[in-house]
């Protein structure tokens, strides 16, 4: 077998050929058919933040409704749709896609390659996600918004009580978004395993890549559960199956088992990439290498494993056997250990370094404080007696927002400030950033800390109003004021981003003097990412690579070609050609949309949509014509 | 100015087995669909535990024998599938065509048998939860089978129309785990639904 050889040579400038091979054509066809990971990643991030703002507006409406007793801003039916769409949007249309969007954008850059392993699948995943998200919101705006909570418990969500099409919209939105998440996960796993820069052995991968890899593996084994259960829910509703119908041998608790088998890992699917953000931000802002890299990796893997064994702690109030309750309490407490290991290692990193308190680092500090509180309340509700007392109260609302906003959104906002220069080539305003961080932090705690007390006082979740005699009014008013402050903080970041995008200070390749490969190319990176594909010899290549570190030579510049490396050591193995601009993923996504949406109204949508999908896939997979040189080679 | 490089120009433009990124994608697809199948099997036993008497209707042994025949056909199809993969590595295109066509033909026979079983079952998906889960399990495996057959037909079209490039050989070889997964799914469905009927 031919092998890669190390030598010295005069490198030709192949910039023009690379640009020609990798840059998409101008115009609508080029835009719709773009398969560049940076374009798809940007679209994921922008779309997810769009849904985040929409979900935030719904949150504000709920807070205004609950600001005082007996308010009538919205009625109970509309309120049900609002809290369901808020939760579904934040979990399925914002949190998972935005993390995956960052992965799609950053992972190939961090690995020193030029695109993801399967660019068309990447584009397909985005279009499917967009269709699913728009579908949910069209449902809400046409009074067909789902109304049984983001976890859609049966029988409320089933055919007996969930009349009309509202929960069908929810079930199919799930199918869209999970399909998208699975497509991204497969892409990121294979890209990470097979397209690392030569020398980037597994033990030299950036922490964010490790976090993304572990998260993607979780997606592969968790998301099928919700695709299956949402399919069962849809079939119970549409073709009269009886999976969850107790009268015909089904069981409503089966739904909860399948849903939470997915949905608890979902928390870690959202949260682990955020831990990757924290590690990525800490090194450059503490100006030192991470303490305990191996332990951080192992803790991430351990969190994922344990995350699959705790789902029943969401079901303590369903009357499960005591042995099961004890097991799942123990498993839920066990997860504190790897999380604690990570926290202490980060603190040790800060301790060892010289901290720069720029905006990304401030968000990391906000994460430390907030996530610690959320973690502690998590330990409390892992205990069955306490959980039974606060189950379905605002205490749980407080806990989950501390974990998800504190644990995921704060690091995410830090990541936005950190990588915005890479995405756009421009710096966000630092003063506005610090002010927004202060507003977000203060607003968050003002909103959610009082909810702990409201829960302990007995205020249930998902009520559209309450009586004055309950005494819940003052704390609810505080929470609403906090929500407005939090909203102002988010709005300030949005304004900052829009202004900086147009006329922010030019960032240059590496404004933070950071350590990863993504900072060794221009900001924003060219279509081909790196003129010369890098090699690495350390975990912090931008800091520690010697000036004569070799680059890769011999990957074709006139075609979109990637280097494939070996699984563990990332030694050069072979080259592979990628697909370029194509409308096939969009066509397949539209056919998928026809199938899923149409099936709500008629079973005929399945064979018709299925036929359309087959046509799209044949176009997708049909081999390109051979290049001229290949024809010449093949000629007798 | 001269620069140290790792020259990869002589490396091949395709690879077989786990060296090929596509092999990993196929394995992950198997993992995703396999998780669905296993969770459906779990659903079956969950419902079984809560249904008295179980099963609510007796599946005739004749259907179970058809399912057994189907499983045998699936298992036999592994042989030409394996042979097509080896032929792909060896670059023997005529043998690839023959073996892939044979495997696909066997798959079509098995899929027809599964279709027959579904139509002979004494219950529909909307009869009761048992009917729902049996139809779902057998139906999902049937969908996997149809997908595998469809993929093979596409490969056969490429093999017949040509030109057959090295990367097509690699694609065919690394896709064989999808067929093995379909066989494993058929075995799981048979064991869950029909084994008890035969015992």
Can you tag this structure with a few keywords?
heterodimer; A: 636 residues; mainly alpha; Cytochrome C Oxidase, Chain A; two-stranded antiparallel sheet; 20 helices; 64% helix; 3% strand; B: 199 residues; Four Helix Bundle (Hemerythrin (Met), subunit A); 6 helices; 76% helix; elongated
Explain what the structure shows:
Chain A has 636 residues and is mainly alpha-helical. Chain A folds into 2 domains: 29-582, Cytochrome C Oxidase, Chain A (Up-down Bundle); 583-623. Helix content of chain A is 64%, strand content 3%. Chain A contains 20 helices and 4 strands. In chain A, strand 3 and strand 4 (572-577) form a beta hairpin. Chain A is globular and about 80 Å long. In chain A, 56% of the residues are buried. With 199 residues, chain B is mainly alpha-helical. Chain B has a single domain (32-42, 60-198), classed as Four Helix Bundle (Hemerythrin (Met), subunit A). Chain B contains 6 helices and 1 strand, in the order E-H-H-H-H-H-H. In chain B, helix 2 runs antiparallel to helix 6. The longest helix of chain B has 33 residues, at 129-161. Chain B is elongated, with a radius of gyration of 21 Å. Chain B starts with a strand and ends with a helix. The chains are: A mainly alpha (636), B mainly alpha (199). Chains A and B meet through strand 1, helix 6, helix 7, helix 8 and strand 2 of A and strand 1, helix 1 and helix 4 of B. Strand 2 (551-553) of chain A pairs parallel with strand 1 of chain B, so a sheet runs across the interface.
Summarize the structure in short.
By secondary structure, chain A is mainly alpha-helical. In chain A, about 65% of the residues lie in helices and about 5% in strands.
List the helices and strands and how they pair.
The complex is a heterodimer of chains A (636) and B (199).
Chain A: E1 5-10, H1 15-22, H2 28-32, H3 37-66, H4 76-111, H5 119-141, H6 166-194, H7 207-238, H8 252-286, H9 293-307, H10 322-334, H11 336-352, H12 359-381, H13 384-390, H14 394-424, H15 430-456, H16 473-503, H17 541-544, E2 551-553, E3 561-565, E4 572-577, H18 584-599, H19 605-621, H20 628-634
Antiparallel strand pairs in A: 3-4
Helix pairs in contact in A: 3-4, 3-5, 3-16, 4-5, 4-6, 4-8, 5-6, 5-18, 6-7, 6-18, 7-8, 7-9, 8-9, 8-11, 8-14, 9-11, 12-14, 12-15, 14-15, 15-16, 18-19
Chain B: E1 2-7, H1 21-49, H2 61-90, H3 93-120, H4 129-161, H5 166-174, H6 176-198
Helix pairs in contact in B: 1-4, 1-6, 2-3, 2-5, 2-6, 3-4, 4-6
């Amino acid at each position: 077998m031919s092998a890669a050889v190390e030598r010295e040579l005069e490198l030709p400038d192949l910039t023009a050929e690379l640009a020609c091979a990798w840059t998409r054509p101008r115009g609508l066809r080029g835009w719709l058919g773009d398969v560049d990971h940076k374009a798809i990643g940007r679209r994921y991030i922008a779309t997810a933040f769009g849904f985040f703002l929409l979900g935030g507006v719904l949150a504000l409406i709920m807070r205004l409704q609950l600001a005082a007793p007996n308010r009538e801003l919205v009625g109970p039916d509309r309120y049900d749709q609002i809290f369901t769409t808020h939760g579904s949007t934040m979990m399925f249309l914002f949190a998972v896609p935005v993390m995956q969007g960052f992965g799609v954008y950053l992972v190939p850059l961090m690995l020193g390659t030029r695109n993801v392993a399967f660019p068309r699948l990447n584009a397909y995943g985005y279009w499917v996600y967009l269709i699913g998200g728009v579908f949910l919101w069209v449902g809400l705006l046409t009074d067909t918004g789902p109304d049984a909570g983001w976890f859609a418990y049966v029988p409320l969500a089933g055919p007996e009580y969930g009349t009309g099409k509202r929960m069908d919209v929810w079930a199919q939105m799930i199918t869209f978004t999970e399909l998208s998440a699975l497509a991204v996960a497969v892409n990121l796993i294979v890209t990470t395993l097979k397209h690392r820069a030569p020398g980037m052995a597994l033990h030299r991968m950036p922490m964010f890549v490790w976090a993304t890899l572990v998260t993607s593996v979780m997606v592969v084994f968790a998301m099928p559960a919700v695709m299956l259960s949402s399919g069962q829910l849809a079939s119970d509703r549409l073709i009269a199956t009886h999976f969850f119908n107790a009268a015909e041998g089904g069981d409503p608790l089966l739904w909860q088992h399948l849903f939470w088998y997915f949905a608890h890992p979902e928390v870690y699917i959202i949260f682990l990439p955020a831990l990757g953000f924290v590690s990525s931000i800490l090194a450059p802002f503490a100006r030192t290498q991470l303490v305990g890299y191996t332990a951080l990796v192992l803790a991430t893997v351990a969190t994922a494993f344990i995350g699959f064994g705790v789902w029943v702690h969401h079901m303590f109030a369903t009357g499960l056997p005591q042995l099961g309750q004890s097991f799942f309490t123990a498993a839920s407490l066990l997860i504190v250990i790897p999380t604690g290991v990570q926290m202490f290692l980060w603190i040790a990193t800060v301790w060892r370094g010289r901290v720069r308190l720029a905006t990304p680092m401030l968000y990391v500090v906000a994460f430390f404080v907030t996530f610690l509180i959320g973690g502690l309340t998590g330990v409390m509700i892992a205990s069955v007696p306490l959980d039974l007392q606060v189950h379905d109260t605002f205490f749980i609302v407080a806990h989950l927002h501390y974990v998800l906003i504190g644990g995921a959104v704060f690091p995410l906002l830090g990541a936005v400030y950190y990588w915005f220069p890479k995405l756009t080539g421009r710096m966000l305003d630092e003063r506005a950033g610090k002010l927004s961080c202060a507003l977000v932090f203060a607003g968050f705690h003002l909103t959610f800390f009082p909810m702990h007390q409201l829960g302990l006082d007995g205020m249930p979740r998902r009520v559209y109003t309450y009586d004055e005699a309950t005494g819940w009014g003052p704390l609810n008013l505080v929470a609403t004021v906090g929500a407005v402050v939090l909203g102002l903080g988010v709005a300030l970041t949005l304004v900052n981003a829009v202004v900086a995008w147009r006329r922010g200070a030019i960032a240059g390749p590496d404004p933070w003097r950071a350590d990863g490969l993504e900072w060794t190319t221009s900001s924003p990176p060219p279509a081909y990412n790196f003129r010369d594909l890098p090699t690495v010899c350390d975990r912090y290549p931008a800091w520690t690579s010697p000036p004569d570190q070799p680059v890769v030579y011999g990957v074709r510049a006139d075609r979109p070609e990637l280097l494939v490396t070996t699984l563990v050591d990332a030694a050069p193995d072979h080259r592979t050609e990628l697909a370029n601009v194509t409308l096939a993923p969009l066509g397949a996504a539209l056919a998928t949309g026809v199938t899923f949406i149409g099936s709500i109204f008629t079973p005929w949508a399945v064979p018709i949509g299925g036929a359309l999908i087959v046509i799209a896939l044949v176009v997708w997979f049909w081999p390109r014509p051979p290049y001229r040189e290949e024809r010449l080679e093949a000629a007798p | 100015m001269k620069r140290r490089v790792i020259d990869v120009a002589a490396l091949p433009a395709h690879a077989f087995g786990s060296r090929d990124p596509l092999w990993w994608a196929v394995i992950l697809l198997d993992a995703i669909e396999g998780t669905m199948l296993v969770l459906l099997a779990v659903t079956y036993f969950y419902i079984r535990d809560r249904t008295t008497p179980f099963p609510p209707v007796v599946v005739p042994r004749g259907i179970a024998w058809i399912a057994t025949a189907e499983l045998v056909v699936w298992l036999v199809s592994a042989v030409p599938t394996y042979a097509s993969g080896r032929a792909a590595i060896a670059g023997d295109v005529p043998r690839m065509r023959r073996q892939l066509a044979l495997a696909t033909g066997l798959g079509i026979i098995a899929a027809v048998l599964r279709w027959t079983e579904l139509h002979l079952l004494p219950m529909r998906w909307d009869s009761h939860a048992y009917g729902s889960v049996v139809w779902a399990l057998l139906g999902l495996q049937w969908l996997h089978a149809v997908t595998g057959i469809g993929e093979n037909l596409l490969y056969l079209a490429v093999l017949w129309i040509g030109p057959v490039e090295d990367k097509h050989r690699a694609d065919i070889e690394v896709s064989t785990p999808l067929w093995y997964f379909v066989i494993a799914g058929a075995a799981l469905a048979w064991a869950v639904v029909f084994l008890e009927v035969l015992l």
